[in-house]
Structure formats: structure tokens, C-alpha cells
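Service request form, structural biology core

Requester: graduate student, group of Dr. S.
Request type: structure prediction, single chain
Budget code: on file
Notes: please return the result as C-alpha cells.

Sequence provided:
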Amino acid sequence: MAAKTIAELDLQGRRVFIRVDFNVPLTPAGGVSDPARIRAALPTINHAIERGARVVLASHLGRPKGRQRADMSLLPVAAYLAEALGRDVFLADEPAGDGAKKVVNDLRDGSVAMLENLRFTPGEETNDEAFARALATYADVYVNEAFTTAHRAHASTVGMVKYVSSKGLGFQAEREVKMLGKVLGEVERPFVAVLGGTRVAEKFSLLECLLGRADVVCLGGAMANTFLSAKGVAMGRSLVEPSKLPLARAFLSKAENSGARIVLPRDLVVADDAKAEAGNVVPAATLPDDTAAFDIGPESAAEIGAALARARTVLWNGPMGVCESPAFAGGTLSVARSIALVMGGTTVVVGGDSAAAAERAGVATSITHVSAGGNASLEFVEGKKLPGLAALES
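Core staff response, request fulfilled:
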């Protein structure tokens, strides 16, 4: 049974518990420095308010490890949200207990409360039964608007949900499920996947899943070094994972049998270290022994661009190099621009570095979907059942 959405739920006069992800960075002065996650949840919150719900918001912030910490209070978040909504947001002084119960009980139709940081209680991350039951007493309706946490079986994402009969997805979470679902199952072809980043282990499950699904898999970043090394290329002082060489060789062998084309870098931008102000472009096969690769070269970027130009479905996760350095950001920015040129197809970008690169290249609005889901998004496109989504289907 597919999960319902908030638009399908009866909210009038009911306590609507919305699990949001307001794990946002704060300024030294105690303000919100990047409100993107808060703003993304506004359509769902406003929908509930407009339909006369008694809104109860719950989120975590940082890693307080089960104890109260003033620097991880949701007070600045509640203040920002109140200004964005143009109405009071009543912050409880605890995630559960008498104080939280009073704040929730005092709500009137169309009003908004926020529980204090869920992770101030150890039971949140351990999915403690008593804590889950306590949270459920604040809810007549449960809405998950925190897709970023859907891969975690926590009390607020899984434990409490079985005690609430009316439940569904918020608008942002619904969009994540819909758009990420476009790269699962039947897709428009050619389907091109571009994967970068540092560690093979972090992406290997995704790589395996893409065999038989993607027509072309383009590899970059330090991860590609291990695959080049597996093919016998001397990588100088580049980051290579020797323990993952057997996995890389096995993957390349499977790729030949699957019919997928694997694109590895033809040229690389090398330097003495990642702090260098500039790098030199060399063929991947002739990497100098005393240098390391920190980006793909222009020939490699052009080959990826050519594959993307023919694509109808694109999945991109992970930078092509050390993209926080201007000297080694060229490959990543080139990929972002090439993806933005895909016309009429579906383009999905997953991961903070990739999303930031799309913004930096000025092309984020030209991409079908830039996911904010992080590890949850990766697990979803790997075909894994996310606990937070499965809980909504029961």
C-alpha cells in the first residue's frame, strides 16, 4: 500500500504531528545561517494551518547525545519559523513530558507548537518504546516531512507511527519519493549515471544496483582512482583504496557482461597536494609518480558531457574532484553544466557537494530535481526500503 500524502488527510481541528528536518546550521550569535530546510517545509506547515490543524512540529538538531544542550536548542529555529509564518510558534522546553504536554494541549485550531530537540532524549535514536508512545500522545495525524531521516528507524520516524492511525507524507517528502522513483524501474533511455566522491565502499552498493539499469556509468573523483588502479594504471600519490581493488575489478568485469559502458577519466588534473593554487592536466595513463590527481581533466569532462548530451535520464552523485578548491572544481562544474543542458529528460542530483556545485554553476533551476535527502536518497535509489517510508504504509 502506497503512503498517502497530507493533501489526502483530514486535518481540521486535529493535532497534526509533522516530523520535519530542521537540523540547520546556526550562527555564533544564535541565529539560523541557512534556512533552506525550514523554507522547504513551509508549504506543508501552511497547508496544515490553513485547514485548521493544531500543528505539532518535531525535529532534531545536531548531535547532543541524549542530553540537553543550550547550543543545540531549537529556539533559534522556532524564532525564524515564527517570522516566516507570520504567527507565534510555541516552543516546548522538552521533547516529551509535562511541559511538552501542556504546550500541545493549549493549542487551538490553526496554531503551531514545536517540541524541543528530539535528540535531547536518548530514546529518539534508540527508538525507545516509551518515548515513541509519549510522542504518539501528541498526534491525531502523523506527517513525515523529513525524508532526510527516513533511512533511520528512530522513535519519531518509525516507533510512534504505529500508534497513529492517520498518516502520510508532507509535500517535500512526497516530491523526493516521486522524483527519485523516476530513476528506479523503467526509465527513458539512454540512462546515464555520473558518480564521484572519495570512497568506493560508500558507493559500491549503488554501483552494483546501476549495472543492468544504467546504459552508461561515468566515474570521477578519488573513487575513480581505485578503478583506474584496478586496470593497471599507476596512480602516483593519488588516493587509492588497495583493499577495494578486488571489488573494483569484479565490478568492471560485471559491467562488461551487463552491457553497461563504464567511462573512466582519460586525463586528470594533478598537483603536489590539494592546497595547490593550480594543477597540471596529464593523461591518466602517464601520471607522474610524485603527483596526485585532484580532478578530472577537460577531455574526461568532454566525454562525460557527450554521454549526457544523448541522455534521457540522468543520476548524478558526488563531485569529480576536490571541488571546494577553485583549482580542482572544473570537472565538477562542467558536469553540472552538461546535466543542465539535458532537454526534455529527467535529471536527478543527489548529495550535498553535487547540489552545491549545481548552485555554484548557476544551473540548479535547470535540473529536474536536486535532492536534499543525502544518505536516505542514496539508499532509496539503491532500491532499499526506508524504515520511515515503510512505517507510513502499514
